[in-house]
Amino acid sequence: TDEWEQMFCKVVAAYYGVSCSFDEADERFSVSIEPYLGLFDRDSLTYLLDKVEPNNQTWGRGKSYSDHPKIKKRIEYVFGDGFDPTPYPRFWAETE
Question: 4, 42 in Cβ contact below 8 A?
Fold first, then answer.
C-alpha cells in the first residue's frame, strides 16, 4: 500500500541519514535510497532531507555531487515549483 511504501521510505532515509562515514553513506545511498527514489513522496522526501542536512557524512561525501542531484530531480518532479529549499542550504548548495 502507499502507506507502507512511505513508511519504508522513511526507514531507508533514516538508515542513510545516520551513516557514520563517507564510505558507509556511499553504500547506503546506492543500496537503500537510489533504487527506491521513485517511491518517495512529498513527506518522505522532506524527511530524507531532514536526515541528510545535519550529517556531513551524507552531504559532504564525494559521491554526493553525483548522487544528490537524483534526489533533487525527484523533488522537482514531486513538488514542481512548490518546494522551499531554504531549510536545506548544505544539500541544496551541493546540487546547484
Answer: no
Distance (Å, whole) CA 37 – CA 14: 14
Spatial separation of the C-alpha atoms in residues 96 and 91, rounded to whole Å? 9
**Gap between the Cα atoms of 83 and 60, Å rounded:** 22
- Report pLDDT for 96: 66
Q: Which three cell numbers stand for residue 23?
A: 564510505
Q: Is the dihedral of CA 43, 4, 12, 77 positive or negative?
A: negative
pLDDT of residue 40: 97
Distance of CA 64 to CAs 3, 47, 78, Å? Answer: 28, 17, 20
Query: How many residues in the chain?
Result: 96
Q: Which of 56, 44, 52 is nearest to 11 (CA)?
A: 44
Please tell me the pTM assigned to this model: 0.94
Handedness of CA 45, 51, 54, 56 (dihedral sign): negative
